[in-house]
Amino acid sequence: MNSWFGIILVSILSCSVYLILGRLISITLGLSRFVSIQFIIGYAASILIFSLINIPFEFLNVKLSVLANVYAVVLLLIMLILTIINKNHLMDVKVIKRFILENWIWVVCFSIIIIIQLVYVLFNGIYGSLWDSSTYTGRVTTALFTDVLNRVNPYTGEPTTFDWLDAFFGLEMHSAVICKLTNMHALIYVNKVLAAIEVLLYNFCAYAIALELFKKDRKKTVVAMAFLFLINLGMYTKYTPATFLFFRAGEPKSMLSNVGLMVVLLTLTKLYKQEQDKKNWILLSVSSIFALCLSQTGVFLVPVLLTVGVVPLIVKDFRLIKSYFFCILPSIFFVSIVILKRG
């Protein structure tokens, strides 16, 4: 699975699972019918489902191989149940076909923008954060070779005790599980497959946000995406999103900045249109939990983004402060864990 054929195959299988899961959830909950957003929902849901399983498994020191099998079974069962529930509403091929025919030029242009970025990320031969890379991929590789979940120091090989921080921020173990299920090396998965998935998620999030801002004008949205790509090409500093996307793709910090925070921004754009809709507040809370699960850095960035995004709405209607506290509770919980751990 470590050849280019394996990379393409695992990428296609992973994307198919995320898209199918996102589509089933979207239909069940009456969310977006757009494929790009369904893909985002599917990935976020897979991470959240994994986190719910991973935390007790790490606490009980269950083997990685067992976690991988349980996660796969749970994911398949959820998809099967949702398929049975929505069996009469799954086929809308005609709608998708009509959309592509009506907007084919913008679909092609947007696809070209994404393909250029994929090629650039996968073949640039540069990795912008060697030390962070050794930490992240070291944890994944150690878990694979020892078949345990964060109970061995990747640098010294010494056994370690259960760590709540490692359990709650489980992106590395999620990568290890995928590697276990696909028999793929950690370096290949993180630097190729996960990097490609991140590029897709980032562009889908940016496209969805731009589409909202430009009031569904796809021409302006695609032009904005082209400008965003050109801007990213020229923004190489240590802490810009472009550097995380093109040279640090696959890292937890990169996934947080280019996917997690973008999902939170996307739900905020939805909230600004219908701030009284409780469903939008729930989605904002769930998206914040998803972002928090990607990296410890999110403990500080997510609540700041939520606060900055929601304060204008509270100024407009102070009664919304209750909804704000509902959304900020997960961040407070994660912050508490970090404070208790670090003292």
A few lines on this structure:
With 343 residues, the protein is an all-alpha fold. Helix content is 78%, strand content 0%.
Gross morphology: globular
Distance between the termini: 43 Å
Q: Which structural class should the secondary elements be placed in?
A: mainly alpha
Count of helical segments?
A: 15
Helicity level? over 70%
Total E-strand runs: 0
Architecture overview:
This protein is mostly helical and 343 residues long. It is built from 15 helices and no strands.
Q: Key features?
A:
343 residues; mainly alpha; 15 helices; globular
List strands and helices in order, with pairings:
Blueprint: H1 4-29, H2 35-59, H3 64-85, H4 93-102, H5 104-123, H6 130-146, H7 164-168, H8 171-182, H9 186-213, H10 218-233, H11 241-247, H12 252-273, H13 278-294, H14 298-316, H15 321-342
Helix pairs in contact: 1-2, 1-3, 1-9, 2-3, 2-9, 2-13, 3-8, 5-9, 5-10, 6-8, 8-9, 9-10, 9-12, 12-13, 12-14, 13-14, 13-15, 14-15
